[in-house]
Please model this.
Amino acid sequence: MNRRSPSDPPDEPAHATFAPKVVPAAARAPSRLQRKFNKLVEQLTQQRRELERWQLFREHYQRRLVKDYQPLAQRLRERRVAMVTLLDRAMDGRELGKRQRDKVEEILRQMLGELLAESEDEELIRVHDKYAEVGYRERQLDRMAEMRSLASEEFGIDVDAYDGADEPDELAQWLKEQLRGERPGGDAEPAEEPPQGAKANKRAAARAEVAEGGARAVRDAFRKLASELHPDREPDATERARKTELMKEVNQAYKDANLLALLELQLRVEQLDPGGLADLADEQLRHYIHVLEEQERGLADEIDELIEPFTLALGGSAPRRLTPDMVQRALETDIRHLKGVLREVETDLKLLQDIRVLKSSLSQVRMATPGDDDDDEPWDAYEGRRRPRGGRRRS
Model:
């Protein structure tokens, strides 16, 4: 028995077979507009399947993160904090020599920088300031001052208008919004209308006419369906219940200006047939095509919005066109990696409780510097342990 993938959408509902398609009479080839209409319907059908696949996968992905990934990540953070505590305690003693203390101090700076970038913690800030030349809060204020200066001098942003918290991340987000030209409400500043000549005005009028025709096509399809399916006009209780459910679909499709769904519903209730679509006048077909093109762009944007967080999570390793199966494999790899790192860190924590083991480990450790060919092992500040040269860690 074949197992379903988390990215497999559910089986197509029966009404999905009612795809509106222009089928001209025998011996007649479809016109250019009819071919365009059919192609758009096919694209929209595929997009809906892809959107459904990503929506289904997103739910699975979130459950897997909460159940498997996040507990591991939290446990690893706790173990790394414990490593910081262990090293800090060793620094308070007298067993370490000067060279060993220099190494531990540098290791602590690296680990604390990464841990505080993940999440602030007052105890970690205290330890950070114990070894840092510049305090954590002071460094934050310096970063914000640099960001303000750059934004003002290079981009002309009125940084005095910022009234958010003294957090570099919040300021950075506010500056991004200013660079995009967004107003406080999140709405972009309206673009100034460029001057138009007679030809441009004529084209704009034609586009407006097609758009109005498209809106009218949606409205007309809705009215025809509502006239036939209104449950209040149905005396039979069973049929009234069926029409009530259908009208819910009709109302939602009209609310979304979803012409494709309305046409599918017309096919289902036999208000429309492929032959009837073939008899549509070119003007009506153009109106349909306009609405379907709008739907196609809207669905493409919705799919891109769903995919974007996964693309950002994968970073530079993300392929040009991501699929749910690719994200699933990456998540499985990350979970296995975290489990391995966690085992190693917990082993090291036990061993390094012995100051003699810590001193022996430090004697073999160098702090990695560009161009340094030393054969000693660098200390991995992410894992809080020694790792072989040439090894790498997942972000």
